[in-house]
Specification:
By secondary structure, this protein is of the alpha+beta class. Among the domains are: 6-26 and 83-169, Ku70, Chain: A, Domain 2 (Beta Barrel), CATH 2.40.290.10; 185-230 and 241-276, no CATH class. 31% of the residues lie in helices and 27% in strands. A 7-stranded mixed barrel has the order 1-2-8-11-10-9-7. A hairpin with a 2-residue loop joins strand 5 and strand 6 (71-75). It starts with 5 loop residues before the first strand and ends with a helix.
């Protein structure tokens, strides 16, 4: 099992249960190193002090808050530990809110909340109660030198924890949207038909990063001494003069366009399945 990122207690009234947090989602990308172009040697980054004119070790680093240009309040690591809140080891549920009231923009990172053996029964009780009532629990949690407000919601047979962006972290965009634009009922009706034509059940396995796939193909081709043809770039979309006409034309084309991505996704799925089968054979 992967290493947990936090261990402590989840408290719910007078009920306390030992729990662990595990990362629930993490981006995966092809990693590149920085090389010197002349000899393909990996370059190194160093910590340099311009006052002493020398490279320094990480043990010589302290945290500094710049309160005035060029002037800092210096904070030692031990001082940070002294002010850790009680939520560093205990996560207390503060309140419950309806899931429908939480805008997804507040969701930050995802973690699996897993109970230790002594806490399995109260954990199961909380999962079932949240599932039946459609509520989400809000709690406080401290980790990585920061206190988070978190959401706890039922997921599969357990609880998923999501850290929350605070109100002052949500960026506001002035005049966002097009509230003053009027659309005709007939246009909305055709738009509904367009949505219906592309309706599908959500299946996360259908979606993948095509650019990441192309990077992998490029690396493989270079290893084999081959060149990959450039990906065809889409042409500039035509300017929409008549919205209703564009909607109707889109609706006519949609059925064919809907089938093409499915074939691409299926091919990708077959490719991934082949890779898994190859790995299994090697392991055997």
């Amino acid at each position: 099992m992967a290493a947990s990122v936090w261990t402590g207690y989840l408290t719910f009234g007078l009920i306390s249960m030992p729990v662990r947090l595990f990362s629930g989602a993490r981006g995966t990308r092809v990693a590149f190193h920085m090389l010197h172009r002349d000899d393909n040697v990996r370059v190194k980054q160093q910590l340099y002090c311009p006052a002493d004119e020398r490279v320094i070790d990480r043990s010589e680093i302290v945290k500094g808050f710049e309160y005035r240009k060029g002037e800092y309040v210096v904070i030692e690591p031990e001082e940070i530990k002294k002010i850790e809140p009680k939520t560093a080891k205990a996560m207390e549920i503060l309140e419950f809110v309806k899931a429908s009231e939480i805008d997804p923009i507040y969701f930050e990172s995802s973690y699996y909340l897993v109970p230790e053996d002594p806490g399995k029964r109260p954990y199961a009780l909380l999962v079932e109660a949240l599932r039946e009532t459609d509520y989400v629990a809000i709690a406080k949690l401290a980790m990585h030198n920061r206190e988070y407000t978190v959401f706890l919601r039922p997921y599969q047979k357990g609880l998923m924890l999501h850290t929350m962006y605070y109100e002052d972290e949500i960026r506001k965009l002035e005049n966002f949207g097009a509230e003053d634009v009027q659309v005709r009922d007939a246009e909305v009706k055709v738009a509904h038909q367009l949505i219906k034509a592309l309706e599908a059940k959500f299946d996360s396995s259908k979606y993948y990063d095509s650019f990441e796939e192309n990077v992998k193909k490029l690396i493989k081709a270079r290893l084999e001494g081959k060149e990959l043809p450039a990906v065809e770039k889409p042409s500039k979309p035509p300017k929409v003069v008549d919205l209703m006409s564009a909607l109707k034309q889109s609706l006519q084309q949609m059925e064919g366009k809907k089938k093409a991505p499915q074939r691409a996704h299926a091919a990708h799925g077959e490719s991934q399945a082949g890779k898994r089968q190859t790995r299994r054979k090697k392991a055997a």
